Amino acid sequence: MKNINPIVVSGKECLPLIEGGKGIAVSSGESSGAWAKAGGVGTFSGVNADSYDENGNRIPQIYKEKTRSGRHRELVDFSVSGAIEQARIARDIAGNKAPIHVNILWEMAAAEEILTRTLEKAGNIIDGVTCGAGMPYKLSEIAAKYGTYYYPIVSSSRAFNALWKRSYRKTSDYLGGVVYEDPWLAGGHNGLSNNEDPLSPQPPYPRVKDLRSLMNEFDLEHIPIIMAGGVWNLSEWEDWINNPEIGKIAFQFGTRPLLTEESPIPDAWKKRLLTIKKGEVSLHRFSPTGFYSSAVKNNFLRELEERSERQTPFLKEQTNEFNEKIEIGPRKRTFYVKHSDKSKILKWIKKGFSKPMATPNNTHIWVTIQKASQIVKDQIDCMGCLSQCLFSNWSQGETGTTGKKADPRSFCIQKTLQNISHGISSLENQLMFAGHSVYRFAMDPFYKGGFIPKVNQLVDRIMKGL
C-alpha cells in the first residue's frame, strides 16, 4: 500500500484519519480524545452531549418546563453545557498538539446559538467545527468569529457551490476542509437530493472528482476533501491517495470507532455490531427531519414500515370515489374511504389496529390504541430538538409550529437516540443508526472472538491498510 503521509488539519499536523462525529452521546470526549491522541482528528458530538456531576455520574436530561418553548430552552442549555464538557474531556486526553473538532447538526434546534455559546466558552480548545444535515450557510461566519476552522458536510459539488457563493467565499481563510459524505454509504442522515434515486447508488469517485474540480475553480487546491461513508480500510482507497484528480485527501471513519473500548455506546450495542449481516442496514425516510437516513433494520424500523403500509386516504364528505362510510369509536366519528380500501381497513381493525391517525397528506394510518397513545404522548412531550419537526410539528420560529399537522408516521428522534445511546431499553426497539459497511465487523478477522480494540490499536491497523 502507498505510504500515508501526515497532513495539516485545523493548523495541526496529524494523520489523514478523521473520526466521524456521530450524534447524541455516541462520539464523546473520551473517544475523540483517544482518536486524536492516536494521531488522527478527534470529533466529539455537540448534539445534546452528556454532562456529569462532581462524582462523574451522567446528569440525566430531564425536562421540567410545561411548554414546548420552555423545554426547548432547557434543551439548548443541556446541549451547550454538554458540548463544553466533552470538549474539555477530549482536550485533556489528546493534549494541546492534536486536533479536536466538534460535530454540529445544522438541522438541530438552535444550532447557531449552541455553536456560538460553545465556542464562546471552549473555542480555545476546539480546533474545528464539522457541520452537516442541512445547508449551514452561517457556519463559516460563526466559526471565523472565534478563529475556528470549519468543515461543511456535502454530498455533491452542487451543494458546495451554493455554500461557497452565498457565504464561504467571504471567510475562506477558515475553511479547513470539505467533507464529502456519500449519501448511499454513510450512516445517520444522508444528503440525497430530490433528483437522486435512493435505490440507484452512484460511485463516489466521479462525484468527488467533480467536487475537486469545482474547488480548484475557487483556488481551493490546498483544501483537503474528506471522504466519508463506506470507508473501512485504506488499501481499498489506494487509488485515491496521491491522485491529482482527487487532490489532497483525508478519510473519515464513522462506523469503525463505534467498536472500541473508548466508545461510549452500551456493551449490548457493541456486541450487536459484531452480528449484523450485509443488507441489514436500511435507507429510509421516516426521520422527522425529512431527510433520508440509514439505520439497522430492526423491530423499530419494521414497525414504522408497517405503520405506513397500513395507510389509506380518506375524506370527510362522501364522493363518487370515496363512497364507503366508516364509523370509529364510541362517538361514531364518520369519514369516507374508497371501496377498495374498506376491506383492508376491516381486516386491520380485526387484528387490533383499530385507531386511525390522520397524517398531513389526508390519509389515515391504522395503529393499536396503545401505539396511538404512545405517539400522542411523544408528540405532546416534544422538547424542540430540531429546527423543524415533522413528527410533532414543532418549529423554532416565532410561532413554535410548522403550521402543518403533526405526522404520526414518524417518531421522536430525541427520545429514541437518548434511549439507545444510554442503554435505557432494547436495541431492537430503538433507532440504531449505522453505515452500510457495518456488516464487515462480522467478517473482519480483527474482531474474531468478539475482540474490541482500543482506539490506538484500531488506528494502527487502519494505517497498515487493514
The low-confidence parts are none
Helix content: 25-40%
- CATH superfamily membership of the largest domain: Aldolase class I
Name the assembly state.
Answer: single chain
- Describe the largest sheet: 8 strands, parallel
Structural class: alpha/beta
List the helices and strands and how they pair.
Blueprint: E1 7-9, E2 12-14, E3 17-19, H1 29-37, E4 42-45, H2 68-94, E5 100-105, H3 111-122, E6 128-132, H4 139-145, E7 149-154, H5 157-166, E8 178-181, E9 188-190, H6 204-217, E10 225-228, E11 249-253, H7 267-273, E12 281-284, E13 292-296, H8 299-309, E14 311-313, E15 324-328, E16 333-337, H9 339-350, E17 355-358, E18 363-367, H10 369-380, H11 413-421, H12 455-463
Parallel strand pairs: 3-11, 4-5, 5-6, 6-7, 7-8, 8-10, 10-11
Antiparallel strand pairs: 1-2, 9-13, 12-13, 14-18, 15-16, 17-18
Helix pairs in contact: 1-2, 2-3, 5-6
Concise overview:
The chain has 466 residues and is an alpha/beta fold. The chain has helices at 29-37, 68-94, 111-122, 139-145, 157-166, 204-217, 267-273, 299-309, 339-350, 369-380, 413-421, 455-463; strands at residues 7-9, 12-14, 17-19, 42-45, 100-105, 128-132, 149-154, 178-181, 188-190, 225-228, 249-253, 281-284, 292-296, 311-313, 324-328, 333-337, 355-358, 363-367.
What do you see in this structure?
With 466 residues, the protein is α/β, with parallel strands linked by helices. The chain folds into two domains: 7-265 and 443-463, Aldolase class I (TIM Barrel); 299-429, no CATH class. 30% of the residues lie in helices and 17% in strands. It is built from twelve helices and 18 strands. The strands form five sheets. An eight-stranded parallel β-sheet has the order 3-11-10-8-7-6-5-4. A three-stranded antiparallel β-sheet has the order 9-13-12, with no helix packed on it. A three-stranded antiparallel β-sheet has the order 14-18-17. Strand 7 (149-154), helix 5 and strand 8 form a beta-alpha-beta unit. Helix 1 packs parallel to helix 2. The model has no long low-confidence stretch (mean pLDDT 93).
